[in-house]
Batch of 2 targets.
Target 1
Amino acid sequence: MSLIVQKYGGSSVADAESIKRVAKRIVQTRKAGNEVVVVVSAMGDTTDELMDLAHEVVPLPSGRELDMLLTAGERIAMALLAMSIKSLGVDARSYTGSQAGMITDAQHGSARIVDVTPGRVREALDEGAVAIVAGFQGFNRVTGDITTLGRGGSDTTAVALAAALKADVCEIYTDVDGIFTSDPRQVPSARKIDRITSEEMLELAAAGAKVLYIRAVEYARRHGVTLHVRSSFNNNEGTLVVNPVDGENSVEEPLIAGVAADLSQAKITVAGVPDIPGKAAQIFTIVASSNANIDMIVQNVSAAATGRTDISFTLPKTEGSATIAALEAQRESVGFEMLQYDDQIGKLSLVGAGMRTNAGVSAKLFTALFESGINIEMISTSEIRISVVTRADTINDAVRVVHSAFDLDGDTPAVVHGGTGR
Amino acid sequence: MSLIVQKYGGSSVADAESIKRVAKRIVQTRKAGNEVVVVVSAMGDTTDELMDLAHEVVPLPSGRELDMLLTAGERIAMALLAMSIKSLGVDARSYTGSQAGMITDAQHGSARIVDVTPGRVREALDEGAVAIVAGFQGFNRVTGDITTLGRGGSDTTAVALAAALKADVCEIYTDVDGIFTSDPRQVPSARKIDRITSEEMLELAAAGAKVLYIRAVEYARRHGVTLHVRSSFNNNEGTLVVNPVDGENSVEEPLIAGVAADLSQAKITVAGVPDIPGKAAQIFTIVASSNANIDMIVQNVSAAATGRTDISFTLPKTEGSATIAALEAQRESVGFEMLQYDDQIGKLSLVGAGMRTNAGVSAKLFTALFESGINIEMISTSEIRISVVTRADTINDAVRVVHSAFDLDGDTPAVVHGGTGR
């Protein structure tokens, strides 16, 4: 008997019909002799609707109360799913985050899991029932208050439960067939990846692949949880995200796992910075104080004549104005000449565990882009990833060119359904 | 400093604007120097919508899961209300039934309160915050499961908290100005009652007055909680429901408190029952087994020639078919000749603590009805109430006639807003 954790996103439980469809799938899994724990998100756009309601009442809602409000969404979905499963003759019980033992810190809106004590879930399984757990939510032991885990929270709930229950696999159901070599909406020839290491998945997620949240992948890697990303609309095998023992995979792993694009970033250039030690540290201390999530950083070579240099970095567009304001406030003490803000950039990332032992990858990437007339503005690399920044309007071409250059194109086009969960 | 419990029904928090209006009223009460605990129902039709959703998924939802689902409604309302109050500069914290210590038995859908341990609510008050508590919900200590209290549950939550916290008053906010001598929708000349005993209120609620639920009034009487029923749409004084010490009120209390009508009942007549001892007991044992809530019972005098008698009783229309089925199944063992079902009846009740010492009340009532040509089909009395059953289509005339006969008509017509809470 296997223990399977299944996570269904909001688009998989968007209405009564979808809930009944998902219930049938869960019942099949249970009747095949598995123990089943289900983590579910709020139905369709419920979370956005609740958020809108909060903003109708008050512009800046209290974090504690916003969490109390938003957690109503999963509560509705999980209760409906549990009653639907029961109506098919299989016992099912729904549990809130706190009932399922998702203990977090007290950071409302983006709480971190500090412990998982799924005693009631284990008990339900022992009694033959399917346990349905609300994704995205937990509670803090000190304050006794309800918390939410922030973006991608339901994925994280599923992985954390899988780790605590020592599940055989954690299935993440979504509206696409798995992880692709690139976004199928952008690159119709994108191929589904059958198997990918968590390390590669982490880089893909960080590079903008939206199917899995980076936080859930990190958690899975740290706790050795195997993920299976698959579609809730068919029975196809999806993508296995595995945690190979060191060295185990070096022989057969392909050079490149995939190509990701990210259009959510903006670039800030601090121009005319005095080229003296400590200035970069001063700038990024200011940036950090505005809570910006910096991605790439590039410092140009100093023009010897002026004794000044330019420092550029990328960050999410949503954090642009706060960061600009923080830097402007310190213009005199830093001594820079001007700030430039550019939100028309795109970032392309090439990810593959194989590239760490293959020096030719960057050259091939840069050549492919050059031959297509696409200009590279910034470059950053990790051991298994190369990212380049281009103009936003060239990013689609860039992804297709690179996808072909590395022989990633598949034979059958990918099937894509609408909507995204959380 | 007074401790005030305020309960707002669904129609008082139907949308963002209403929530902001209620928040202002709560802030006023707090700033006037009172400690404030607020019990809130789900917004507008939320509960009905959730119930519809459940029935889209499955015809007969599990009780445990239905409670889990429905409690999402109050959760949404209380979080929005708390954030609205906080935005007005007064600290506020929302608590679920279980966080507020509403301990119940495990009867899903109609749980009874077995204990109230409002430690966190008391703590919030001690720290100067307004405590917002979800009405209608509790939890069971043995199963650890969420429960709901059934119809009128939010009133009961408010009264139970008021009792446990030894509140000075429990204010029940609704869409009318208080308790009236009759339903203002039916009798435009109905007068608002300034003060009524809980005993009279209990009889009025049992007789069909819908402003307060009988269960909440019972709880208030048993625990000595003073209720103040008033409108959330204005600042008028409403109706005080008081618990006079024995004898205290006998002098000044008026003869009649009010007239109530109830069109929700049906009448079942078991005809041709053998007139031998034990038959009535047998019939009502059968009726009880179908969980019917019997109201009035009348047994006609036996016709000596036949040795048979007729027994009639009233019960809620919704329970009619189950009770008919239960009786039919036992026709042979009881030995009755036929069953008659009549759902075209109306019940008029005259309530007043003064009538227990005044023999002329029944005579005046029957005379008033007789002079208006309204036929009386059944009569039942308690110490402070007389109820009569008439045809349903004469009930409105009957209420007006009786209201006038007992000089209850006021000078100014009552103001009525739409909608009802729970």
Target 2
Amino acid sequence: MAQSIFYHAGCPVCVSAEHDIVALIGKNNVDIVHLGEQKNKIAEAESRGVKSVPALITPNGNVLHINFGASLADVRG
Amino acid sequence: MAQSIFYHAGCPVCVSAEHDIVALIGKNNVDIVHLGEQKNKIAEAESRGVKSVPALITPNGNVLHINFGASLADVRG
């Protein structure tokens, strides 16, 4: 299976969702990107359609916004 | 792996998310419940913490609201 990407920002909602997603799809199938620590990736996430975190990009490029932790504007700070 | 439950209501956002979730976790690992057709399950979904559809209940009972299709109030009609 191609890789999914999980974008988060370390918030409690993000961490909880990360645990759930890893349990569901397996940690080898998902790249975890912490946008709070890797601010250079915020523009990349945005270009992929991410509006808020946590969000999962599926292997076919769809964006699944999962619950709501923070908007990208909040993460950008 | 224990079963997850995916609640939806047939809306375009729901159908798209359903395809993604089935592709990610496998159709044998998720029960799909169409709340528009099974209105008797709306109360059950609500008691599990579902506020809107599409939503996924993980095997450990967490609710992942995925994107936003419709509120449960809208589904109830």
